[in-house]
Amino acid sequence: MSNILNIIGGGMAGSEAAWQAANSGIDVVIHEMRPKVETFAHRTGNLGEMVCSNSFRSDDHEQNAVGLLHWEMMQANGLIMHTAHKHRLPAGGALAVDRDPFAESVTKALKDHPRISVSYEEITELPSDGNWIIATGPLTSGSLAEAIKNETGAEALAFFDAIAPIVYADSIDMDTAWMQSRYDKGETEEERTAYLNCPMTKDQYEGFIDALLAADKTEFKEGETAKYFDGCLPIEVMAERGRETLRFGPMKPVGLTNANDPNNKPYAVVQLRRDNALGTLFNIVGFQTKMKYGAQKDAFKTIPGLENAEFARLGGIHRNTFINSPTLLDEQMRLHSRPNIRFAGQITGVEGYVESAAMGLLAGRMAVAEMTGQALDPVPHTTAMGALVTHITGGADAKTFQPMNVNFGLFPPIDGVKGGRKGRKDRYKAYTDRAKADWNAWLAQKSLDAA
């Protein structure tokens, strides 16, 4: 069997898988179709490019499951997490990054590695031999998606993911907007003022909802069904679910005091997060949308402070595909019908940059163990990594399988820990303490640190 690991896709999962394998002494070829073959969402040919948000979400590794996943990846010398921390931007308790320097650093690290090479071409068929990881993500090319469907005998599942708009900072009216993180969260003043806030009165909010409901939207092609992932719902879809939905979601006014008018509590607040280190770009948090471009401008310019906003990027929508992993993959993330092929990342039915990179990390380590004839213990279910991989390889109900973020609901309960809302803080700390001990024990196995 070939001693080269081939990885299709140079996104979060593919980049992390390549890094893990190469640092374990395995030669790796990353097959990336960009920039020769473009996608709707990507702008460059960089590896690890961020196409939606610039946030890896919460960095709290004691009280948050995704923050725990950050911690586990850092302990495993994860390229994505280490690079994210190098290019961190103020974002309260979240880990947001300067997206272009981040991707450029990931690309440089991989290309500079003596065991990694990058081949820029589209793979259109499933390989019959060799060691492969398919980490093509939600924008898998049509030809490869068709090959996967033909091999598995099952229709690929699909949902629609929407991209939030980005605004030029100097076009925002700071006499109306102000800088503050919710509940002043953060250890530094920069973190505590990481978000830009635009306040709304009740009448302004109602007018904004009316604009969303009346706006022209992108039409779906015949035969397509909008199966949205709840973590990426377009704002107009949320508005259709009830006029107050946004006010209890991304536009909630809690934990904020209007620095320009401290005596008046906003009825709703639109938050923007810095999108680059220069602070010249801000993305509108939670404002994924499928509105047409003209309708977006009309609606967003009704937001106080954004009346004269200029947009570096408007929102968009694209089809995301993922496989029914519980029926198709074994516990090692291998395709049952072709065990020389592993799947990793968002195509497996995990949702989010962090989760995608995490599954790439595991797929890379699992591939190394198999290629070198080493026994690798199953990842403990008590860890964030283990909870996710268990979910996609059998823990989820295949009949209702949908994309999933990491969350404490995927973790085995701990006996003797108080349940309910009042016991949540102690319970989450118990989950993370147990996970850290079990993850470090798993990493300590004799293996995967040859280089």
From TrEMBL:
Q: Which gene holds the coding sequence for this protein? A: trmFO
Query: What is the name listed in the Swiss-Prot or TrEMBL entry for this protein?
Result: Methylenetetrahydrofolate--tRNA-(uracil-5-)-methyltransferase TrmFO
Question: Known Gene3D superfamilies for this protein?
Answer: FAD/NAD(P)-binding domain (3.50.50.60)
Offer one example of a GO biological process linked to this entry: tRNA methylation
* Family from the record: Belongs to the MnmG family. TrmFO subfamily.
Q: Which GO terms describe its molecular function?
A: flavin adenine dinucleotide binding; tRNA (uracil(54)-C5)-methyltransferase activity, 5,10-methylenetetrahydrofolate-dependent
| Cellular compartments per GO CC | cytosol
**InterPro entries xrefs:** FAD/NAD-bd_sf, MnmG-rel, MnmG-rel_CS, MnmG_N, TrmFO
Needs which cofactor? FAD
Location comes to: Cytoplasm
UniProt main location, coarse: cytoplasm
Q: What does this protein do?
A: Catalyzes the folate-dependent formation of 5-methyl-uridine at position 54 (M-5-U54) in all tRNAs. NAD-binding protein involved in the addition of a carboxymethylaminomethyl (cmnm) group at the wobble position (U34) of certain tRNAs, forming tRNA-cmnm(5)s(2)U34.
Q: Which reaction does it catalyse?
A: uridine(54) in tRNA + (6R)-5,10-methylene-5,6,7,8-tetrahydrofolate + NADH + H(+) = 5-methyluridine(54) in tRNA + (6S)-5,6,7,8-tetrahydrofolate + NAD(+); uridine(54) in tRNA + (6R)-5,10-methylene-5,6,7,8-tetrahydrofolate + NADPH + H(+) = 5-methyluridine(54) in tRNA + (6S)-5,6,7,8-tetrahydrofolate + NADP(+)
Which top EC class applies here? transferase
EC number, as in UniProt:
2.1.1.74
Task: Report the residue ranges that make up the MnmG N-terminal domain in this protein.
Answer: 6-374
Q: Which SUPFAM superfamilies did the record assign? A: FAD/NAD(P)-binding domain
User: At which positions is FAD bound?
Assistant: G9, G10, G11, M12, A13, G14
Keywords (alphabetical) are: Cytoplasm, FAD, Flavoprotein, Methyltransferase, NAD, NADP, Transferase, tRNA processing
